[in-house]
Each structure stands twice: as structure tokens, then as C-alpha cells.
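Table S2 (text version). Query chain:
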Amino acid sequence: NRCLGLLLLAVSSQGFSFINVMKIADTQWRAVESSRIQRRVLFQVGATVFVGGGIRDPAEAFENRIGQLFPQLKGRPYGASTPVPQGVGTGDSLKGCPSTEEKLARQPPNCFSSAVPKQDREHYILPLHYDKSGGAAMADLVAAVQAYPPGQSNIDGGGWRLVEKSDKYLYVQYESEKIGYIDDLEFLLDETTSGVLIRSASRVGFLDFGVNAKRVNWFVDFLCGRGGWRAERITASNHPDYFAQNGSD
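Corresponding C-alpha cell output:
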């Protein structure tokens, strides 16, 4: 658009290379886009309250949240109105990426899954591997979910909720602090390979500002700390584009 063109012209005149110019423009666009999404969310919720004469549904904030929602949300997180994505919560398979069903020109860097093709290096993550029985591995996963502290690394301040649990599958929802965006985390145990497929994804937006990487890395550190687990952390070395867009690790 015209504003972007003027920005490119102005920065170019200062002697920056084309690559640096594009990086600056990209950063500016992301900041504007993030602000636009936040304003749209607050407007939509405010409009619902005004037109409907007040939200009649009970507040759906998670019980273990540690922070406060924006006052405009009237105690009801934005995630309460976002449906569970198709393919999430089935209990027998994991969805790939992107996290939404929208057809986007660029794949959003807000999703990691062991179920995507390995060639998709920015979204694929290695399964977790365990050196113990499947039952013991599942017990470790449940212990990890229950030990997860809302607000760790300044994320998931809205808390979490265990939605589905079986002898081979866990599905947990996480909520952001101020707006109450919902993210989905799934673990699927495969005893034939002594591995655990994992998927962590945001439901809305484009960037996640490092949230999904921080969440997955917390579980990697917790499980490896218990012993009998082998797993790889998400870093700028193995997912450079993700960190280039969302920030450093």
C-alpha cells in the first residue's frame, strides 16, 4: 500500500540494503497487524455486549488463570467463542499445520506438529521418545500437564484445562492472559515406536510471539528432567524462520 511504499522509499534513501529495508517493512507490518487484531477482538466483544444487552453466558475463564482479562471482555475470554479446530481432540490422530482452515498466502508460524511432513521444516517437530513402558510414559505426561505453571516464561497466564485423557492421548487447552486466546496442545503415544507425537498450535492470528515454542520446550525440559526421555528443544537453529518472525529464543 501507499504507506508501505513511502516507508521503503524513506529507509532506502538512508543507505540501507534492500534486504534490510524489507526486514524493517516486515516488522512494521507485523506490529500494525497485531494491533489491528487486538482492536478487532475488543470491538467484536464490545459489540456483542451492546447488541445483546449483556453476555448471558457464564464466564469461561480457566480456574487456574493468574492474570486479569481486559475489562472490555466482561470476564469472558475471547477463546470462549472460538470453536475447537476440525481434527483436534479426536484422540486417535493429530492434525498438521497450519492451525486454521483458512487458505493463506503464507503459512503462519504459530503451529508445531509431529504429524506434518518432515520436509515442512518450520512446522515439523520430532516426536518425544521414551525408554520405559507406555504406561509409565503416559503417567509422566499426565504429571507434566498437572505440573505446568500458568505464566511460565510470561505465557499462558490465562491458565489451562485438561480436556481429553485416555491411555494414549492427552488434549489440553491453554489461555492467554489479557484477551483469552485459546491454544491447543495434544500428545499421542505410539508404543510401536516408543514415541509421543506432539502438536501445539494457536487457533487465531498469524504470529504467536514464541508462545508455542516456549510451551513445547517447557514439556521437553520437564520430561527429560524425569529421566528416560529423549527430546529436542525448539531453537533458532532448527526453526530459524519461526524465530526470525516471532522473536529470538
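Notes on Table S2: Confidence is low (pLDDT under 50) at residues 1-13, 21-37, 41-59. Residues 236 and 243 are 6 Å apart (CA to CA).
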